[in-house]
Amino acid sequence: MPPPPPWLSVFPFCDSRLVRTQQTTFQIDIASDIVSSMVVGSLKLWTDLVVEGFQKSLRVGKFLCLLHAIDTYVCTPVLPYGPSMLPTLNSTGDLVLVERVSTWLGKVGRGDMVLLRSSEDPRKTLIKRIVGVEGDTVTYLVDPKYSDASRTCVVPWGNVWVQGDYIYNSRDSRTFGAVSYGLVEGKLFWRIWPLKSFGSLHGKAKEDS
Amino acid sequence: MNLFGNAVPWRSIAKEALERTAIVTRFLCLLHVTNTYICTPTLVYGPSMLPTLNLTGDVLLAERVSHRLGKVRPGDVVLVRSPVDPRKSLTKRVVAMGGDKVTFVVDPRNSDRVRTITVPRGHVWIQGDNIYASRDSRQFGAVPYGLVEGKILCRVWPLDGFGLLHH
């Protein structure tokens, strides 16, 4: 048997079985071993990549979970649109913060602007102001655009009476009646945008200047 | 003897306590997320769903996926936040969805009077299976769909009633 070539020592996985009498089979065996080691090497690389990808996405997933938990239980940003809360909130382009702690503690009352799920279309959420709570007697203008007619009613237990600040163009409790307190999802407390109105949203409805 | 001397390893105790607390907190978070978005056990009691549910308490499994996808149908037993007391949850059967006409006996204990009402859009009509002792939509009206919190899947306790609820 001819002695093994000196470069064979570079490939430590090659053992003496590769050394054959015939040069061609020797070369084919070397080549197949290189390929198989490359496949094994790249397989390991692959699994490393997959494991790292999984770990990174787990971290991202945990961060998103935290974000979602804060969004649902502490505070969430909302983009309201529509004319029903003029002049307090603009028709479009406002960014407000809604906090969820007060509703959970039951500390939402008259004069608060709240985020509530629509009782007519459960996929929509509305922003209105609470005008009366359970037990209150509410007197309201039924259709102020066209008539002066007003009606009075008592807010049932467990419900709230909501109205938009701009009663001429607002679909609220005057149309769909008192709303169950369970549909109130949060209380508006801070406006972020536009910057000239940055600040707290507490207190009475903004008067038209 | 110095209380904060080297004899007591305060640092490692605090660190271990923090780690254990973190593990417990993560587990509670996972439990909470599962209960809110996937499936939760509830204890229900009262006479309003006899004979389907027992008077003295059953543990039911309520799933919280269907109602978000809008897959609540008449005949389903659902978990609903009470429209008259937001701190309570009710378990009743959905009889009609928004837009349907529902015919019901107003007060079966005292009279045979029947009424027919169209359920408003975005609302559901719920009734207890035991109409003689149930406070439901016949008293407080149609319930907004937004108050539906889950659909009852099956009974877990007592064991002799284990399995899907029968009509």
Sheet with the most strands, sense and barrel status of chain B: 8 strands, antiparallel
Strand count of chain B: 10
Large-scale geometry of chain A: rod-shaped
CATH structural fold name of the largest domain in chain A = Umud Fragment, subunit A
Poorly predicted residue ranges of chain B? none
Into which percentage range does the β-strand content of chain A fall?
15-25%
Oligomer: heterodimer
- Helix/strand class of chain B: alpha+beta
H and E string of chain B:
HEEEEEEEHEEE
Rounded to an integer, what's the Rg of chain A over CA atoms?
35 Å
Describe this protein's structure.
Chain B: One of its GO terms (molecular function) is serine-type endopeptidase activity. Chain B: Catalyzes the removal of transit peptides required for the targeting of proteins from the mitochondrial matrix, across the inner membrane, into the inter-membrane space. Chain A starts with 22 loop residues before the first helix and ends in a 9-residue tail after the last strand. Chain A is an alpha+beta fold and 209 residues long. Chain A is rod-shaped and about 115 Å long. In chain A, the strands form 2 sheets. In chain A, strands 1, 2, 3, 4, 7, 8, 9 and 10 form an 8-stranded antiparallel beta sheet that branches. A two-stranded antiparallel sheet of chain A has the order 5-6. Chain A has helices spanning 23-73, 101-105, 173-176, and strands at residues 75-78, 95-99, 113-117, 125-132, 137-141, 150-154, 159-163, 179-180, 184-193, 199-200. Chain A has 2 domains: 6-72; 75-200, Umud Fragment, subunit A, CATH 2.10.109.10. In chain A, a hairpin with an 8-residue loop joins strand 5 and strand 6 (150-154). Chain B is of the alpha+beta class and 167 residues long. In chain B, the strands form 2 sheets. In chain B, strands 1, 2, 3, 4, 7, 8, 9 and 10 form an 8-stranded antiparallel beta sheet that branches. Chain B has a two-stranded antiparallel ribbon with strand order 5-6. The longest helix of chain B has 28 residues, at 10-37. The N and C termini of chain B lie far apart (73 Å). The mean pLDDT of chain B is 89. Chains A and B meet through strand 8 of A and strand 8 of B.
